[in-house]
Amino acid sequence: MKIKIVGVRFRPAAKIYYFKVGELALALHDHVVVETAQGIEYGEVVVGPRDIDDATFKRALKPVKRVATEKDERTHASLLEKENQARQIFEDRAQTHHLDMHLVDVEFTFDHRKAIFYFTADGRLDFRQLVRDLASTFHLRIELRQIGVRDETKMFHTLGICGRTTCCSSWMSDFRPVSIKMAKEQGMSLNSTKISGVCGRLLCCLTYEDPFYHEVTRKMPRVGNWVTTPEGEGQVYRLNVLEEKVVVKMQTDDDETEIKTFGVDEVVKSGDKHVLANNRRQQREKEERQKEQQKGENSKTTAEEGKAEGGEKAAPAHNKPNRKHTRNKNASSKAAKSQNRGGADEDKSGGKGDGSREPRHRKRRHRGGRKHNNRQGKAKGGDKSREAQNAPKREGNGQSGKS
């Protein structure tokens, strides 16, 4: 089903929205009043009436309410004056609440129900109290939108490095993605001051010639390749993509080097020399990749060695010797020393098991007398304590020290 539509823009260089015309007679640059998701809006027709299939749009289009009258024009003019006054109020309120934000633009809806403030800031801000303050001042809904540097430049209508009004503020409705690869393919200097716009981002005009460069460079040989020309064989010295010409370095009969220019259609790849040149280039690229990979492996190995050294230093803390085995070794060494002394410690062991001193807290924990002596004998006597347990008990064991 065919419907008649028009494209309406609400701000200069803003996005274009489409509406159904209906029975109205509209022309290009007419001012109209339309209904949007945010309410009633005032805009300008930038795309003239045209018939289009209804299935092209995913959602049903809203109709144009009317052509702008004199009253609508006066209302729009009063809103512009109100926006200028709102700027000063917003800056004063933001300073009062100690918010570091820069106001870019203010927009009031045509039905006086909502005010939108566009601002920039270094990070995220808590402006809830500011919104309440503005709502109590203007007595309508307040919306604060944080925008980027490109949107800020778009609203300022400044001049670019070419001396003309920036494309984003004059005719571009949407921003296209720009990459540094586009500047490399176009042979531009990678100096940031030459390939960056007023906003500090890459120039939007880099995208204009990018499809042409893609198409032409497919047909052209690479720099360094050998080619056959109408005047003989030579090596590609430089490429002129815009003129679609190849600059070739050739050797003359007098062993002198000449630089000559040929069209893309006049240049043919030169058999074995072309293959050898490609092989050399591929070998260089392969060696560079191997070097980078080797550097990555070396750095990874160094990091692993650092971790291993740290693990070895920390290993003794995790592998603490068992306290029981340590006591057994100490007891065995003490028993050996006592034998060498001639049994001087045996008299002391009569009252306290093996004669070794235990910490005070262990004595408090075990107050069982004979039971305590047996445990100490097991812990510090080692195998000898086991033999002592299996041997027949002596009379008066554990009380010789008191008798």
UniProtKB/TrEMBL annotation:
<dbReference type="InterPro" id="IPR007557">
    <property type="entry name" value="PSP1_C"/>
</dbReference>
<feature type="compositionally biased region" description="Basic and acidic residues">
    <location>
        <begin position="343"/>
        <end position="358"/>
    </location>
</feature>
<feature type="region of interest" description="Disordered">
    <location>
        <begin position="271"/>
        <end position="403"/>
    </location>
</feature>
<feature type="compositionally biased region" description="Basic and acidic residues">
    <location>
        <begin position="380"/>
        <end position="396"/>
    </location>
</feature>
<dbReference type="Pfam" id="PF04468">
    <property type="entry name" value="PSP1"/>
</dbReference>
<feature type="compositionally biased region" description="Basic residues">
    <location>
        <begin position="359"/>
        <end position="378"/>
    </location>
</feature>
<protein>
    <submittedName>
        <fullName>Stage 0 sporulation family protein</fullName>
    </submittedName>
</protein>
<feature type="compositionally biased region" description="Polar residues">
    <location>
        <begin position="329"/>
        <end position="341"/>
    </location>
</feature>
<dbReference type="GO" id="GO:0005737">
    <property type="term" value="C:cytoplasm"/>
</dbReference>
<feature type="domain" description="PSP1 C-terminal">
    <location>
        <begin position="62"/>
        <end position="147"/>
    </location>
</feature>
<feature type="compositionally biased region" description="Basic and acidic residues">
    <location>
        <begin position="282"/>
        <end position="312"/>
    </location>
</feature>
<dbReference type="InterPro" id="IPR047767">
    <property type="entry name" value="PSP1-like"/>
</dbReference>
